[in-house]
From TrEMBL, chains A, B:
It comes from Kribbella deserti. Homodimer which binds Holliday junction (HJ) DNA. The HJ becomes 2-fold symmetrical on binding to RuvC with unstacked arms; it has a different conformation from HJ DNA in complex with RuvA. In the full resolvosome a probable DNA-RuvA(4)-RuvB(12)-RuvC(2) complex forms which resolves the HJ. The keyword Kinase does not apply. It is an enzyme of class 3 (hydrolase). The gene is ruvC. It catalyses: Endonucleolytic cleavage at a junction such as a reciprocal single-stranded crossover between two homologous DNA duplexes (Holliday junction). This is Crossover junction endodeoxyribonuclease RuvC. It is found in: Cytoplasm. Mg(2+) 1 binds at residues 7, 141. The active site is at residues 7, 68, 141. Binds 2 Mg(2+) ion per subunit.
Length: 177, 177
């Protein structure tokens, strides 16, 4: 399963691609950021973000896209732009036929560090270790995008195992009928 | 000048098209809403909104798009979806080469009713009168989209007159050099 994680933002939109499967350590495919100039109007910044995500999906063909869920109470000054960048990521993924998942920052932190209240430093550190990277991914938005992708692979794994268990249970019941 | 006003929303995204010029009363071109089902995931709802706006722009060829500016402090439960619908409208307009303007709700109310604190009823009433409509446009989102378009035509008129004055001043100065 190849997952594109998106840490949304207008100035820097983090993109992190990971290959993973249940019971195997995930591996890095690609990581980077789409940057847009602060002096451009927001409409054109969204166009640049759209183009960047389309390019990544076209080049790397992920199976799913995981986007950070944005909350209204976070950093009021930038939250609208962040929400709109997240909306563009969801739009592009759905338009290209990919399943979209949203994960909250604390779900992502808990998945990679074991604590939903871990700091940015700790998330970057754990992403570096989990993916066995020679150095820490920078900027933090890129590391966060990888953490989102890892979180999705691992949570997706759990869902799949659960679904498999349900399916197995259903078929064994069916067999006994 | 033909303006498409967009009152953003996931459940109902109001669209209102108006033709107008400085010193002449604006006229209605078209009005409606893009609706998306509440049981669809947000990513696919954004895809439907995008498709609806692309269709309107392709059919009616506006010269500009005016979108309501969304604030973080408004109705926290729905504000993220509203912001994302607004983002999609801005994205589509910019991608199709159209200028995008944002107007605050109080700018729009002030433009059509004379008061920035007018109620929804009053806005609908004034839009009906200004455009000489045989009946009130419904739902309220459709009336709000028309109010946005009227606001933009009128404010655009002011901007254009100012720019013309500046240009005239500059050319008369140039002539004296």
């Amino acid at each position: 399963m190849r997952v594109l994680g998106v840490d949304p933002g207008l100035t820097r939109c983090g993109l992190g691609l990971v290959d993973g499967a249940t019971g195997r350590p995930p591996t890095l495919v690609a990581v980077g950021v789409v940057r847009t100039p602060a002096d451009l109007d927001i409409a054109r910044r969204l166009v640049l973000i759209e183009a960047g995500i389309v390019e990544w999906i076209t080049e790397y063909r992920p199976d799913a896209v995981a986007v950070e869920r944005v909350f209204a109470q976070h950093n009021v000054q930038t939250v609208m732009g962040t929400a709109q960048a997240a909306g563009v990521a969801m739009l592009v993924a759905a338009r290209m036929g990919l399943p979209v998942a949203l994960h909250t920052p604390s779900e992502v932190k808990a998945a990679v560090t074991g604590s939903g209240r871990a700091g940015k430093e700790q998330v970057t550190e754990m992403v570096t270790r989990i993916l066995k990277l020679p150095e820490r991914p920078t900027p933090a938005d890129a590391a966060d995008a990888l953490a989102l992708a890892i979180c999705h692979v691992w949570r997706g794994g759990v869902t799949n195992r659960f679904q498999q268990a349900v399916a197995a249970q259903a078929s064994s019941r069916g067999g006994r009928r």
